[in-house]
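User: Predict Coproheme decarboxylase's structure from this.
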Amino acid sequence: MPEAAKTLDGWYCLHDFRSIDWTSWKLASSDERESAIHEFNQIIAKWDKTEQHKQGSHALYTIVGQKADFMMMILRPTMEELNEIETEFNKSKLAEFTIPTYSYVSVVELSSYLAKGKDVETDPELQARLKPILPKWQYACFYPMDKRRQGEDNWYMLEMEDRSKLMYSHGMIGRQYAGKVRQIITGSVGFDDWEWGVTLFAHDVLQFKKLVYEMRFDEVSARYGEFGSFYVGNLLKKEAIPQFLQV
Ligand code: 76R
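Assistant:
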């Protein structure tokens, strides 16, 4: 049996996608809308505090296209906290005007292919990558993926050595995008319907297409990658929420 990759696991992660029921939002009184926005801002202020104390992180993006209107990406040390956050939002006034469209549960993951020989508890770089403060870059892209298990193309039947070589080549392509695209890989085996969530951040949205396209030609993705739906969107700053919800 091939040796399983050891994973380093960090903060738990919830991607929560919502659409807005604009019809009922428009029917609400302006007082109601104002208090819904105010309450949402208070929730975010709490998340900001948590982030300042490095006890978690979050990012809000509006989503382009009909799959959702916005995404809340939340990182916390425990699954319980994710659940509390989700429930608190669901009880809020604003949630009455949102329709859940998709969610993804995972945990920040670094695989052992390239992180060998470091002490995870003390290595500051590893710690920062396992508990990342999300970059509030202008664009985000999210999609779930699997590694294929089909006939001759079964990632999980490859020897560790072969997988490491393939992952090295994957990493080399990725590195050419250093400073342009930041990736956060979250593992979701046992948590959600796919094996990983891929979250990318960029200053130039076109870099997502360039990176993902280039990777399609690399063996890891070309032969072994299976992909779910893609979500892409723009940073939603706290200050811009009233404008976003203005009707
Ligand atoms: O973590 C590292 O930086 C080391 C190298 C590395 C690993 C181990 C790395 C680098 N990735 C790793 C693991 Mn990745 N990555 C993806 C996708 O669309 C596609 O074709 C695939 C989706 C992208 C776009 C991407 C980008 N990576 C993984 C894993 C876990 C695999 C496993 O354990 O079997 C997945 C699913 C995955 C998928 N990767 C990089 C990038 C980029 C941009 C880098 C360079 C990061 C950097 O050097 O800063």
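Residues 30-52 form the longest helix (23 residues).
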